[in-house]
Amino acid sequence: MIMKKILLLAVFALAAFVIYSYTNRQDDKAFKKEALENKMVALDGSSIAFKDILKKYKGKTIVIDVWASWCSDCIKGMPKVKALQTQFPDVTYLFVSMDKTPEAWKKGIEKYEVVGEHYMATDGMKGVFGKSIDLNWIPRYMVIDKKGKIALFRAIEADDTKLIETLKTLK
Q1: Which of 76, 62, 91, 61 shows the shortest CA–CA distance to 156?
Q2: Strand ranges (DSSP E) for 16-91?
Q3: Is residue 7 pLDDT above 90, yes or no?
Q4: Any idea where the Thioredoxin domain is (predicted)?
Q5: Which of 71, 134, 72, 133 is closest to 98 using CA atoms?
Q6: Does pLDDT of 16 surpass 60?
Q7: For residue 45, is it left (φ>0), alpha (ψ between -120 and 50) or beta?
């Protein structure tokens, strides 16, 4: 009986350590070099490194919405994104598309009336950018503070309370 309790306690301790380690990872506070160097496509067809995109909006709070026009969860979440934009109008909304073609990406922006700054990753969800931010699901929302640090690494709903509370603290 005592051995079972000791084993159970050890399992709980290990689980708590894993959860603590995952939620407090250092890479959750800054983008990896691979992400920053990754080239994306702007709406005008030009190529731009992700670090240069972030520089354009330095000094502003940024919500990054990683999405795709083919993603049903992304499309279902768009009304929540629009509500977020209404609630936090001074925030920059940066949409990073995982679409496979520029045509599909641009058509999706128009069709779903996506308002914000738009860029497309050139190698999809499993590419350099996706791997560097541990992208395992879209939509994916991230919040960047005015200093360029990641304030919220992962949310999958635009009305996630962590996302909203993070934005409130960054006002």
Answers
A1: 76
A2: 39-42, 47-49, 62-67
A3: no
A4: 29-171
A5: 71
A6: no
A7: left
HSE, side-chain direction, 13 A CA sphere, residue 66: 25
Q: Which of 141, 139, 158 is nearest to 150 (CA)?
A: 141
How far apart CA 147 and CA 128 sit, in angstroms, is 24
Tens digits of residue pLDDT in 30-83: 899 999 999 999 999 999 999 999 999 999 999 999 999 999 999 999 999 999
The set of residues, in sequence order, having a beta carbon less than 8 Å from that of 162 and lying 6+ positions away, is 152, 155
Contact 36, 161 (CB under 8 A): no
Domains of the chain by residue range: 1-28, 31-169
Q: Contact at 8 Å (CB) between 62 and 94?
A: yes
Report residue 48: phi and psi, to 5°. -145, 135
At 28, the pLDDT band (50, 70, 90 cuts) reads confident
3-state secondary structure of 97: strand
Task: For domain 31-169, give the fold.
Answer: Glutaredoxin (3.40.30)
